[in-house]
Fold:
Amino acid sequence: MRVLAVDYNEIHCYALRKVLENSGFDVSVAHNGSDALTIAQDQKPDVVLLDINLPDLTGFEVCTRLKQDDSTKGIAVVFHSATETTGPAKSYARSVGAVGFLTYPIDPNQLATVVRGAAARASASGAHAVDHSGPAQQV
Structure:
C-alpha cells in the first residue's frame, strides 16, 4: 500500500515514514504542497497523510486540488496536525474531502490503523485497489 506523507517538518516526515514503513507501507514524502501534488499525480498513492500547515499551500488547498482532479480525486486524504486541533479545523477537513484527522502526539499503532482504514474506505468506494492485509477502522 502506497502512502504519501506530507509535512514541512522534516523530523515529522522522518518519524511518519519510519512508523509506516515498519508497518509494511511503501512511503514517499513531500515537504510542501506543490511537491505533494506532483508526487500524488505521478505515484497515485492509496493515502495522502497531509499536514495542514505547509510553506506554500495549506493542506486544505492541497486536498481541494486533489479532489478536483479526476486522476487523484479517489485518493484517501488523512490530515495530521500539531497545531490545528479544534473542531472547526476537523470539520473543514471533512468538507474538503478528508476521511480522517490525526493530532499530535500520534500513536504509531493508531497511525497504521487509520491509514489502513482510509485506504479500505477508498477501495470500497472503487477509488483504488489496495492491500487489505491489516485491520480497517472507520476513520
